[in-house]
Amino acid sequence: MRMKSGCPSDETLTKAFQNDLSKRKKDNLVDHIFNCPRCRIKFEALTKIQAELKLIENNIIEKNSPSINQLVTSEKTRSRKIPYFRYSYIVSTALLFVLAVGIGYLLLHQKENRPVLRDNGSAAFELIEPKGKLTSIPSKFTWTRIPGADSFCFKMIDEDLNTIINRTAYSNQYILTNVERGRIKRKKIYLWSVAGMNDSGERIGFAQTYFEIR
Amino acid sequence: MVPRMDRPKDLQIKENIDSIALSVRNILFASFSGLIPQEREDIEQNVKLKIWQASENGKNIDNFRSYLWKVVYTTALDEIGKRMNCISLDDLQAKADSLLISQLELKNPEIVVEAREMSKIIQAAVLRLSRRRKVVVELYLMGMDLAEISKFKNMRENQARHLLYRGLYDLRAIIRKFIRNPKIANLTNLAKAEKK
Q1: pLDDT of residue B187
Q2: What is the ipTM of this complex?
């Protein structure tokens, strides 16, 4: 059922959306589709259909088919019997996580109040405030001037890597709006960075630091 | 042929299958703009009948849901396959190019490059990403959101988010490098060479 040489069959596409393909085959399939506009139209349609089916899915499983209910029950029973290697996998993952958090904590404390500067041949500049541990939600972010920079890309992300603010500033400060302040929560770590850009849009300086509100 | 369904449970199934058929029909209409009314009617009839027949035949299958979903996907692919030759490859390419550029939200100086050329640059740049980031970025550039990527890749959403953000960051850096480097004149050859 191949459309033309190299294109995956409809069956392969269907299997990919039903999670019946190995990881490697699925990755190769994505590589192909990315470069093939004909396959992409099918892929886009299946993506939309998958989203629609997800909405209908729960309804069908819960209400319509006793055989499906049996299937779900048997799958739940099966999932309770976790084999030994899964326990060891969970324990080792948890240990690695604790180790990573510990190292991260130590590194953060060593570099407290000191902005990280990336040196890529560009001028370094400093972030003034806010940084470190704070008692209230900040309203103004300031940094030193950098010669030749006429705009600054200001970005702030939280510890889960969600982008909170991504704006362009035209002076060496950024004042938060009330809405933006509302997005900042206590007891969370926020990383903010500023990139100085020249009039050709080239980055000529970059610095980042973090803050946490107690 | 319309299957007979009298019991309340069957009526519920009928309602859901009608709703699936309607969604598939709408998605196919959106995929092929400029369909004449006759073609629209054909699609509607084919989709409804195929899904109806399949659901009637497979009612006693244990994993009915999986079976029904397969039928839905296959039916949609059949209908797309029938109309594939009527679509201009140039139109498809142009649509794919504009999606690529809009997904990356490229700003100056990237947007000064022509769309087709930019698309080639992006495709060549994607090849430079690490394997795990590359696949996630490709899915994003094809219009999938984070929830869809994590479902398709069978991974946690946080994991997909991390790979995507890192991948996009790297991708933008590579694109900037490509644009500034005048030596990379023939991007098609570059892409082929990198594939090897």
Answers
A1: 53
A2: 0.79
